[in-house]
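TICKET: design request
STATUS: open
ATTACHED STRUCTURE:
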C-alpha cells in the first residue's frame, strides 16, 4: 500500500510511510476541512487526531532506552515544527546550534533514528549512524 501523503511505500498496515508523513497529512487535512467541513464528516474526531500526533512526536523514556551507550542523550523534545523538517536542515541545526543537546532538532533526529527503519531513514536522506546500521 502506498503512503497517502507522498506515494512512497507505506509501513505494514499503516497508511503512511513515516510518522512525519502522518503529521503532515493530518495537518493538511485539518486545513482543508475548514473549507470542506460542510460536505465532509470526518470519521476521526479532531481531538483524536491531535492526541495521536502528540504521542507520536514525544521522545518517551521507553524510546530513549533504546539509545546505545556512548550516544549523547537529547535533553529536549521534538515538536510539531521539527517533525516536518527535512533531514538536511535538521542536521544543519544540530551541527551549528550552541545548545544542540537540548535542542528540539537533536531530539527529533534521535526520535527518528530510534523509531524509523534504516530504509525509511535513507528515504528521508538522514545520515545513518553505525549503531543504527548494526541494530537493523
Ligand atoms: Zn510518505
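STATUS: resolved
RESOLUTION: sequence designed for all positions
ATTACHED SEQUENCE:
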Amino acid at each position: 500500500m502506498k503512503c497517502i501523503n507522498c506515494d512512497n511505500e507505506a509501513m505494514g498496515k499503516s497508511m503512511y510511510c513515516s510518522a512525519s508523513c502522518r503529521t503532515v497529512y493530518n495537518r493538511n487535512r485539518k486545513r482543508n476541512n475548514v473549507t470542506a467541513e460542510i460536505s465532509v464528516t470526518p470519521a476521526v474526531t479532531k481531538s483524536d487526531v491531535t492526541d495521536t500526533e502528540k504521542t507520536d512526536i514525544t521522545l518517551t523514556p521507553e524510546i530513549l532506552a533504546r539509545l546505545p551507550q556512548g550516544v549523547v542523550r537529547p535533553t529536549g523534545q521534538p515538536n510539531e515544527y521539527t517533525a516536518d523538517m527535512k533531514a538536511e536542515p535538521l542536521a544543519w541545526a544540530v551541527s551549528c546550534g550552541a545548545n544542540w543537546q537540548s535542542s528540539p532538532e537533536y531530539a527529533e533526529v534521535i526520535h527518528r533514528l530510534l523509531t524509523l527503519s534504516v530504509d525509511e531513514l535513507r528515504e528521508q536522506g538522514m545520515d545513518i549512524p553505525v549503531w543504527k546500521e548494526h541494530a537493523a
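CLOSING REMARK: The pocket of zinc ion is lined by residues 3, 5-6, 8, 16-18, 21 (CB under 6 Å). Residues 46-135 form one domain.
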